[in-house]
Amino acid sequence: MREAFSLCDSKVFELIDNIPILQINMEWCYFMxxxxxxxxxxxxxxxxxxxxxxxxxGKNLLCLRLLQGRLFLKLAF
Length: 77
Hints:
Layout: H1 2-6, H2 10-15, H3 19-33, H4 39-57, H5 62-76
């Protein structure tokens, strides 16, 4: 999988906001495989996902938290 990502221009990844979610899904797959040899790759995916989420949603995912807060506020009314 890493080889496929390496073929893409990194500028493309900066424009796509759901790549971090894909990274988290891949990290979860490594976890479910219980493969210790993939631990380093899973850690790399986790860091990439966090960096991407912070880039698209702000530090500490502030934008996402604000959106969720507004959604739950609307649901409360």
